Amino acid sequence: EAQVTQNPRYLITVTGKKLTVTCSQNMNHEYMSWYRQDPGLGLRQIYYSMNVEVTDKGDVPEGYKVSRKEKRNFPLILESPSPNQTSLYFCASSQGGGSTEAFFGQGTRLTVV
Amino acid sequence: GENVEQHPSTLSVQEGDSAVIKCTYSDSASNYFPWYKQELGKGPQLIIDIRSNVGEKKDQRIAVTLNKTAKHFSLHITETQPEDSAVYFCAVGPDKIIFGKGTRLHILP
User: Phi first, then psi: what are they for B94, rounded to 5°?
Assistant: First the structure.
């Protein structure tokens, strides 16, 4: 089954404690991206990757890092989480960037206290 | 950069009636216009998309219309059912997808 898998689904952490949210897709897509979803603000892109070892900033990249060492995986790293990073996070993949269907993971609800 | 405005932010319609959600965009070079549905506890899922070479596309009870001159496109849902209750996002491509802020649709019994 074609899917995008994120882990964990829920995470509560403390300010400053490094964390990683994993994302994996099994569709051999070149394009992957991370979004955060906040009430009234919709989906805002954090980072995206057009292929292995190619990453670029989205609209709200501050406080986040990503890596793309393999085509299927695109982890999101918060080196020093802060309460304003409390949000619902989605990973997505697509074959053709912004010109084809994006497949989303189930989401990761992160709370930073 | 591209700016996408979506209205309304909340919409309540009686079951069986039609629902219309509208989006405007700013970049005349945009040529891909998908709509996503997000059910509670899930990620967004594509329900219909349209490219700039057509003005309308229909799939059963849902349709999308595009006016490139006016830079706006709309989602139409006819004969609404309880399972249509969700958050709907419009989006614009092709370089990278820019999403609207979403519309929460309530179908009233």
Answer: -115, -15
CB contacts of B42 in chain A (<8 Å) are 106-107
Pairing, β A87-94 against β A103-104: antiparallel
pLDDT per position as a tens digit, B57-75: 999 999 999 999 999 999 9
B43 at interface of A, judged by CB pairs closer than 8 A: yes
Residues in chain A with CB shorter than 8 Å from the CB of B48 are none
Q: What is the pLDDT of residues A54-87, one digit of tens each?
A: 999 999 999 999 999 999 999 999 999 999 999 9
Q: How many Å apart are CA B3 and CA B90, to the nearest integer? A: 12
Q: How far apart are the first and last CA of chain A?
A: 36
Q: How far apart are CA B6 and CA A102, in angstroms?
A: 19
DSSP conformational letter for A2 = -
Check CB contact of A46 with chain B, cutoff 8 Å.
no
Q: Which helix (H) or strand (E) holds A78?
A: strand A76-78
Contact A99, A50 (CB under 8 A): no
Record: contact B93-A106, CB cut-off 8 A: no
* Euclidean distance between CA atoms B1 and B28, whole angstroms: 11
Shortest distance, CA A18 to any CA of chain B (angstroms): 25
Instruction: Give the tens place of pLDDT for each residue, A5-39.
Output: 999 999 999 999 999 999 999 999 999 999 999 99
| DSSP symbol at B30 | -
